[in-house]
């Protein structure tokens, strides 16, 4: 599943996306709940084969993971500050970062 930038969505598309994502969350929550219960049963009964079907279901759901876009690291600038910083310097850095 590709990442969707919410700033580019129109209201109708956003509503459809929200509905699809809520359905997906519900399926994932149900799968996680089933997997959790099966592991709990397996712990008490020492029958770990109980979890196999639930693990397969979880792996199947995870095939459609959310894929975040790549960030170009070459354009990112970092500033390393060593030592102690005064409040005035911190405020100045914050002001420059906002600009």
Give a description of the structure.
The chain is an all-alpha fold. It has helices at 11-45, 52-61, 87-98. It is built from 3 helices and no strands. Helix 1 (11-45) packs antiparallel against helix 2 (52-61). The chain is extended, with a radius of gyration of 23 Å. The chain has one domain (1-70). The mean pLDDT is 86.
Spell out the key features of this protein.
single chain; 99 residues; mainly alpha; 3 helices; 0% strand
Summarize the structure.
The chain is mostly helical and 99 residues long. The protein contains three helices and no strands.
Topology overview:
Layout: H1 11-45, H2 52-61, H3 87-98
Helix pairs in contact: 1-2
Number of domains as seen in the coordinates? 1
Cα shape: extended
Radius of gyration: 23 Å
Let me know the largest β-sheet: none
Query: How many beta-strand segments?
Result: 0
Helix percentage: 55-70%
How many distinct helices?
A: 3
Question: Roughly how many Å apart are the termini?
Answer: 34 Å
Order of helices and strands: HHH
Classify the beta-strand content into a percent band: under 5%
Uncertain residue segments: none
Mean pLDDT: 86
Structural class by sheet pairing and helices: mainly alpha
